Amino acid sequence: MSLTDRLKRLGAVHRMAPVEPLPPREPAGDVAGFEPCANGFGTFLMRERFYPLTHAHGCHALGEALGCEEKTLGVLARDRRMGTFDVSRALFLDTETTGLSGGTGTVAFLVGVAGFEAGGFRVRQLFMRDFDEEPALLFGLSLLLSERTGLVTYNGKTFDMPLLATRFVANRLAAPELDLPHLDLLHAARRLWRHDLQEVTLGAVERSVLAIVRTGDVPGMMIPALYFQYLTERRPAALEPVFSHNLLDLLSLVSVIAAGARACRGEGRGAGEHYGVARTHDSMKSPGEAVEGYRRALAAATEESLQRTIRKGLARALARAGRGDEAAAEWRLVSERWEDLEALEALAKWAEHRMRDLAMASELVERALAKLNSPLFRSIRAHDRQRAAFLLRRERLAAKRARAARASS
Question: Is 126 helix (H, G, I), strand (E, B) or coil?
Fold first, then answer.
């Protein structure tokens, strides 16, 4: 008796309901203006859109992104090596996928790519009607990548590019040059606008920085479900909001570059943006530019907590620039207004090493210890470490003062 017969006797095999066949695949021309593209791996669909450089997307024309100077791009990317990044030869890329968390089973069913050409900005959207068209789509994408010298994405370093690399491997295709110079604008947006925005998703940056309000846009979390619905029902019209969403994402990448470059040139729109630029210069070890940025931020700041943060950044930058007396003046303002522990420590160091005023340094240490001994500060996690550091400084200062007293007697 076969295993199947035994399972039937045990009631473990049930008659399955007949499976409804999927609707036939629609002709290529029926998908929202897409045209078939064939290569040695099969067929996928693609449509193109062309925009003049004067086309405004939000508060920036597309052509503004081409005016970025090398230094500005280096600051935007927080990488001086990116100063040679050529926006005019970069490939702008955004994917729409069958899942939002990545992983081996996640597939990019729509890949939007774009780039500057003579007189404008060309957008191409590569779409697969079913999973068997993925090899052809990926090969088509590899050809487009080979024509460009850089990449521009939004979270592409973490999501889009690792996902595409995985799909090339899964389809046993020779991976194109995916390690091109890569400007991931999510990281730039975090540095520039996290102080003003509750989140730095592309949508949030569009609304608050680029003055773009999408109407009728499909939420990104719904896109995988819409594609699976399309696979079942074969209604191309259901995917038109997805195509539109992807197109707007690509145009927004260009406007984010223009807005970020404006901020990095010192033409920021507020204290938070100036502060983000100043911190970027700080992290790139450019204290002179950082000082200028902090001063611009301070002039625009109205919120007291932000003023305190900016003044502290300014004082640190001045110290790194070798302008110790100016830094001490800023630390003094911070200590007098907010009784800030970092300011008291910096002033104590300045008094001890620069002014050779051990009495002043000791007084500043005592002020810090008095603050640390208050009930409010005892509950702070770093309390013990900070208190130990000030106690050690007090002990060392006392020893130096004693030696100085003996020497003078």
Answer: strand
- Of 219, 236, 264, which residue sits at a domain end? 264
Predicted model pTM: 0.87
**Chain centroid to CA 96: how far?**
18
Question: What beta strand segments (E) does 293-343 contain?
Answer: none
Residue 192 and residue 65 in contact, taking contact as beta carbons nearer than 8 Å:
no
Q: What backbone phi and psi angles, to 5 degrees, belong to 218?
A: -85, 130
Number of neighbouring beta carbons within 10 Å of residue 339: 13
Cα separations in angstroms, 200 against 23, 156, 212, 271, 320: 41, 14, 14, 17, 30
Residue pair 131/28 in contact by the 8 Å Cβ criterion = no
Identity of the amino acid at 76: L
276 is in which domain, residue-wise? 270-321
> Which residues partner with 36 through β-bridges?
45
In a domain, 291, yes or no: yes
Question: 235 and 316: one domain?
Answer: no
> How far apart, in Å, are the Cα atoms of 13 and each of 4, 8, 28?
8, 5, 41
- Closest Cα to residue 367, out of 385, 400, 393, 401? 393
Going by C-alpha positions, the residue among 72, 88, 93, 227 that lies closest to residue 154 is 93
Please enumerate, as own/partner, the contacts of 165-173 that have beta carbons within 8 Å and a separation of 24 or more: 166/104, 167/107, 167/108, 167/134, 167/138, 168/138, 168/142, 170/104, 171/134, 171/135, 171/138, 173/41, 173/135, 173/138, 173/139, 173/142
Max CA pair span of the chain: 112
Strand arrangement, sheet containing 42-52: 35-39, 42-52, 120-127, 108-117, 90-97, 150-153, 182-184
Angle at which helices 70-77 and 271-283 cross, to 10° = 90
| Residues 156 and 184 sit within 8 Å (Cβ to Cβ) | yes
As given in the structure block, the two tokens for residue 224 are: 């995988």
Q: d(Cα 251, Cα 298) in Å, to the nearest integer?
A: 33
- Residue of 67, 71, 107 whose CA lies nearest to 88: 67
User: Is it the case that residue 20 has pLDDT exceeding 60?
Assistant: no
Tell me: do 223 and 205 sit in the same domain: yes
pLDDT for position 25: 55
Q: Tens digits of per-residue pLDDT, 132-182?
A: 999 999 999 999 999 999 999 999 999 999 999 999 999 999 878 777 899
Is residue 2 one of the residues assigned to a domain?
Answer: no
List the Cα angle 297/183/177 in 5-degree steps: 170
Same-domain check for residues 192 and 316: no
Q: Are residues 278 and 153 in the same domain?
A: no
